[in-house]
Structures are given as structure tokens and as C-alpha cells.
Amino acid sequence: MTVAPVPSAVRFFAILLVLWMGASTPATATTHPGQAELVREVARETGKNPQALNALLDGAKRQQAILDAISRPAEAKPWKDYRPIFLTQQRIADGIAFYRAHRALLEQVGKQYGVAPEYIVAIIGVETSYGRNTGKYKVLDALVTLGLYYPPRATFFRAQLKELLSLPDNHLAGPVDTLTGSYAGAQGWGQFMPTSIRDFAVDADHDGHIDLSNSLPDIFASVANYFVRHGWIAGGPVAARAQPDGAAKPIAVKDATPQWPLEQLVAWGYAPLQHLPPGEPASLQTLEGPSGPEYWFTFQNFYVITHYNRSPLYALAVDQLAQAIAAGVGPAETTR
């Protein structure tokens, strides 16, 4: 049988139709740069449905307010301006009331993990004002914005976005597209990033669900477990004021890693203003106080707090808030 040739005009419009349909096929379109590769990775590693992952990401929005917020972190302030943000009479009073309201559970968790309860309370106090302010941004928006549109820290935040999409449903307080948190994508009362939820969050109430927004046992135990897993020493010192003499050796440090025996720092001209355990590995932080430079011996537990937030200002604020809360509450059953 002979087939009649197709007119050239018909062939031309048929080709245009095929090209148009291909360009408009949803499977080939993505909303955000790098979305297709991210979805392929998560689907390959977790078995999650690519269409469902794309739908989640398609609903996320790049938020300029998030990019603005990360460009002006509080940790950029000097200590003299940073401290008053967190060491207010109201925050201390609220911390004392929070401790007293949950004392039995806090001291149970503190005893189990070897972390003094006032430090658990202080973390929650600094991060979210004791659970009252857990963040207004959609976590998915925050991590899409910073992971796919913020080159200076895209590697870190893309990894957090990937982990958020990969976490089992029972590790989150709700559906991924309903979660709210900080501009950096941290969530819950303790402000855990997705990889911290994966690695350190605890189902302390044994209900088969990790809930860092509604379960106090999960919240308290997760903060304590985070500390322990980063090397917290039960009863160990955190920070102590140092007084330099006129010939003190200038010391510069890159981070809060304990580098020298305390006696070495004393030999270099820095005298402790309180009794400290001899031989304790220490570092020295020099901060801009309201009356000039302040010098602080810092120890392993201080270094652990900087894993929560790498700023020494943050770690010192947590330590001082914890001490103020402990002084207001009175003796606990656990030790520092």
C-alpha cells in the first residue's frame, strides 16, 4: 500500500507542537536552581517519591528577608552590646520560673545525662525565650533560600535542606511544609537544625515520635544529649574571669578549643579570680566589655556550647544566664 506524503506545512506545525509540549512538560521544569539534582539525590538515597519532593520544593519561596537577616547576625556585635540582649532581668526571672515549673523533669534529665539543668534551661532561654519565640519563617523557605540562593554558605545550608527532605516523618513536629523556625532553618524550643535532629534528637517520652516543639521530655533530653555527644564533662568548669598583669603575654585564638594547661596561662600573666581545678585544659577569650577588655579562661564545657553556636559571645551568654538561673532557683539534685 502506498502512503501519501505529508505536506511540508503540516510537518512543520507538528514539529513545533512537539517542541512546545516538551518545553512545557512539568517533569522537566524546576522552580529553584539546583532543585532537580537535589531531588535526584534525596530520591536515590531515601526512596522518597520525586514528584512529592518536587511538589514540596515548588511550594517553597526565596525570601529576601532571610537573606537580609543572615547578613546582620547578633554575634557581630561586641560583648558589651551582645550581653544585654540575653542577660536581662526579665529573661533571668523567666528562666527561674521555667526551671521551678519543670524542676522534677529537668533534674531527672540532668542526672541521666550529667548536664546541669540550668544549662538546658539557658539554651532554651537564649534560643527561644523558653519556647515562646521559636521563629516565624517557614523552615522549608529558609533552607531553600540559604541552600540554593546564598553562595557564601550554600554548602552548609544545602546539606541541611537535603536532610530536612530526608528525615522520617516521625522526626518532625509536623509536615515539612508547615514547620516554622528561625531565618536559618532551626526549629523547636532548642532550635535544632535538621542534621542535629538526625544525630542528637531523642524520643525521651518513648511515644515513637521525636517532637522538639511539644514534648518537654524530648526537648530537654535532646539538648542534654547534644551536649554529651560533643564532649560535655559532668561537673566541669565552663568559664572564669582572668586578670592580666602588666606583663601578660598577648594571646590570640581561632576558636574556643582548650589548648593549654591553666598553669601555662597563669605563667603567661593571667591570674584567675576564683579557685579553679589545677591542670585543667583551657583557652583564653578576650572580649570588649563596657569598661574595656575582659579576659576569660574557657574550658571544655565552654567549647561544647560553641558547637551549638560557634560564637564565644553566645557561649558566655549561655553560661552567665545559667549561673543566674541556678542562683535564683537554689541547690539542685544534679551537679554542674
UniProtKB/TrEMBL annotation:
CDD domains in the cross-refs: Slt35-like (cd13399)
Domain Transglycosylase SLT, chain residue ranges per copy: 37-323
A Pfam family matched in the record: SLT_2
Signal peptide residues on this chain, from the entry's feature table: 1-29
Keyword annotations of the record: Signal
Biological process terms in GO annotation: peptidoglycan catabolic process
Active site: residue positions: 127
GO molecular function terms attached to this record: peptidoglycan lytic transglycosylase activity
PANTHER family: MEMBRANE-BOUND LYTIC MUREIN TRANSGLYCOSYLASE B
NCBIfam families attached to this UniProt entry: MltB
This protein's name: Lytic murein transglycosylase B
Lineage per the UniProt record: Bacteria, Pseudomonadati, Pseudomonadota, Gammaproteobacteria, Lysobacterales
